[in-house]
Amino acid sequence: MNSFTPFPGQPSTQEVVAFHRTELSVIMSLYGRMVAAGEWRDYGISTLRDVAVFSVFKRTAENPLYRIEKRPKLRNKQGEYALFGVDGQVLKRGSDLRTVLRILERKLIRAVD
């Protein structure tokens, strides 16, 4: 039996890295609090073969303020999660998403007059 492929030469299913529901729950919880505080306004999600990226924007037409990346291949080396700043500098790496995002949680703590 011959199977039909709509685009010969290309695999019909490619493995991509994506955020799991529990990971997205952690990220979206932080995102909601930052939107409520007026710090963030928009986000974008990219799923690629080696990495999943959650980008956070102050305004839609700008470069992302922060990028949260998931790279499963780095799980046993540097940790699969990384937080990048606006200039591409690594702010935090680790195996636990909540620990990596803790840096951003500190931005929500402000002195009240």
List the strand order in the largest sheet.
Answer: 1-2-3-4-5
Note poorly predicted spans.
none
**What's the count of strands?**
5
Major sheet details? 5 strands, antiparallel
What shape does the CA trace take?
A: globular
Q: How many domains in all?
A: 1
User: Which percent range fits the helix content?
Assistant: 10-25%
Radius of gyration based on Cα positions: 17 Å
What's the end-to-end separation, in Å?
75 Å
Mean pLDDT: 82
The chain-level structural class is: alpha+beta
H/E element order: HEEEEEH
Strand content: 15-25%
Number of H- or I-type helical stretches? 2
Pfam families: DUF2794
InterPro entries: DUF2794
Protein name: DUF2794 domain-containing protein
Organism: Tropicibacter naphthalenivorans
What are the main properties of this structure?
alpha+beta; five-stranded antiparallel sheet; 2 helices; 5 strands; globular; DUF2794 domain-containing protein; DUF2794
